[in-house]
Amino acid sequence: MTPHPDIPVIDFSDFTNRSSLIANQVLEACTRIGFFYIKNHQIPKDMIQNAFSLSKRFFDLPLKTKQTTPIQYNRGYIGLFVQRGFNIGPIIHGEYNHPLPKVFDESKDQMEDFFRACHATIVQVLEAFAIALEIPEEEGGREWFSKCHNYEDVTSGETIRYMKYPRGGESTYKEPVRAGAHSDFGTVTLLFQKDISGLEIQANRTEWISAPIIEDAILVNVGDLLQQWSNGLLLSTKHRVVFKPEHEDNDRYSIACFAQPKRSTPLNPIPSHLVPKKLPVLPKELPDHLREKVITAGDYLQFCLDTAYAQSKKLQETTE
Ligand SMILES: O=C(O)CCC(=O)C(=O)O
Ligand SMILES: [Fe+2]
């Protein structure tokens, strides 16, 4: 399927030798729409298929078993009955610092390989940003972003989210959409969608366009933290999941990998002549104590989580 012409498909093959060309394409996409597809990435096809099989095995468990699984922070913007999700943090040499359901624990090596492969792709995307932004060598050059995204740093907050949208249409769930309009919190997100489409993105900030599934391509988008950090140069674009006729009879599965810098990373101005030098526009809800200093990636993530939680609580109160 061909995507909407606004969402470019970027060929990441031979990244080392083609990095300048790739970097320019990534910058163009992210300053214009905030989304692009990667084709010819480094994540083996069977690794992605295995990740989806594992996800299905987990979601197929009896409800009772799933309910005894400590589901990590269920992000607030998503209607509970319309989508189910399970978040995990990095698995490092077989170790993890949060509870994992048995099916995942039994496959933790496979999950670690997948998570590390996602991280390697994220590093390429971050290097592409640094190259295109012409970050000087003495500042860290192409590693300026990637050096603060360390897979083995358990505090980073990098997360993989396995999602299932159980079959059924709008009339089944009495909800207008399957996942409400939102932007992601971190630097970049990789999204894998399996077989059934439904994702839409808010191109030009007003009109919704669909982001179809392109075989073997990964969809990538910029998150709020990177938009903030780049002083609005790189765009964090709203997206949502809508009902499609094929959802009536088919479960929809997706997997997202959300990249986050190390929590202690100060969000200092990016050393690039291309990044606007104006004072950063801080979100109006940002508490005063965070306005008075250079905020860290951890402060920013916590602020995003608190805001999303407060919004979802408010929504629940008004709809109950
Ligand atoms: O399921 C999808 O296709 C999108 C999910 C998403 O945008 C998210 O979890 O942030
Ligand atoms: Fe999202």
UniProtKB/TrEMBL annotation:
<feature type="domain" description="Fe2OG dioxygenase">
    <location>
        <begin position="156"/>
        <end position="261"/>
    </location>
</feature>
<dbReference type="InterPro" id="IPR005123">
    <property type="entry name" value="Oxoglu/Fe-dep_dioxygenase_dom"/>
</dbReference>
<keyword id="KW-0408">Iron</keyword>
<dbReference type="Pfam" id="PF14226">
    <property type="entry name" value="DIOX_N"/>
</dbReference>
<dbReference type="Pfam" id="PF03171">
    <property type="entry name" value="2OG-FeII_Oxy"/>
</dbReference>
<keyword id="KW-0479">Metal-binding</keyword>
<comment type="similarity">
    <text>Belongs to the iron/ascorbate-dependent oxidoreductase family.</text>
</comment>
<dbReference type="InterPro" id="IPR044861">
    <property type="entry name" value="IPNS-like_FE2OG_OXY"/>
</dbReference>
<dbReference type="InterPro" id="IPR026992">
    <property type="entry name" value="DIOX_N"/>
</dbReference>
<keyword id="KW-0560">Oxidoreductase</keyword>
<protein>
    <recommendedName>
        <fullName>Fe2OG dioxygenase domain-containing protein</fullName>
    </recommendedName>
</protein>
<dbReference type="GO" id="GO:0016491">
    <property type="term" value="F:oxidoreductase activity"/>
</dbReference>
<dbReference type="InterPro" id="IPR050231">
    <property type="entry name" value="Iron_ascorbate_oxido_reductase"/>
</dbReference>
<dbReference type="GO" id="GO:0046872">
    <property type="term" value="F:metal ion binding"/>
</dbReference>
<dbReference type="InterPro" id="IPR027443">
    <property type="entry name" value="IPNS-like_sf"/>
</dbReference>
